[in-house]
Design goal:
Blueprint: H1 15-29, H2 39-44, E1 52-53, E2 56-57, E3 60-65, E4 72-77, E5 82-88, H3 89-96, H4 100-115, H5 117-125, H6 128-135, H7 147-159, H8 162-172, H9 177-184, H10 188-205
Parallel strand pairs: 3-5
Antiparallel strand pairs: 1-2, 4-5
Helix pairs in contact: 1-7, 1-10, 3-4, 4-7, 8-10, 9-10
Amino acid sequence: MTRLAGVKADKPSSHKKLEAVASKVREMLHVGPTKAIDPLKLFEDLDKIIIKHGGMRIPLNYRVSNLEDSEGYTRYDKEQKCIEVIASVYTYDRLESRHPRAGFFVGHELGHCLLHTGQLVRLAQMPTNQLAAMHRGATVHQVYEDTEWQANGFAGALFMPAKGLAQLQQTYGLLTIDMIQETFKVSYEAAGIRRDVFSQRREILLV
Ligand SMILES: [Zn+2]
């Protein structure tokens, strides 16, 4: 059994839904399906991505901070009424050198912003002791309800869209992990996971 890393999301998701949300983001950023997303640009363009919650637009900002023990995180700022993705200095340096892990961090956090907006807002209202309890992850839930699973799936779909994978496959007559890695500038691991997701659900994802 896979150990679930996140908490229970408000809504379950599916690969199909994650694909649709990721595809909208690519449209907002004007990046075609076979183009690699530049993760540093994605980070600095986060404020161009529209997030709606309860009929209101919530501004999305980014910030670099001196974090000792984390690559970064996402929070809702209840004073400024905006969502912030905070990257550590180390993560930001790795974004500049286009390290795949740092890129995946931005995609993953953006997934939380888009998919878990309500939960981020609620977390910001909670006292810190309750917050700690929530992070102990005492909930029992299915994989497609897991916030971390959803954010990872979103990042995969954002960086390696199904439409782009289908085009690669059509052009070359096959789809290898190396090809995916080379085209979208992602890690070998991320490319492998995504290739499996795509091969198993091709018809659903390409609708
Ligand atoms: Zn996460």
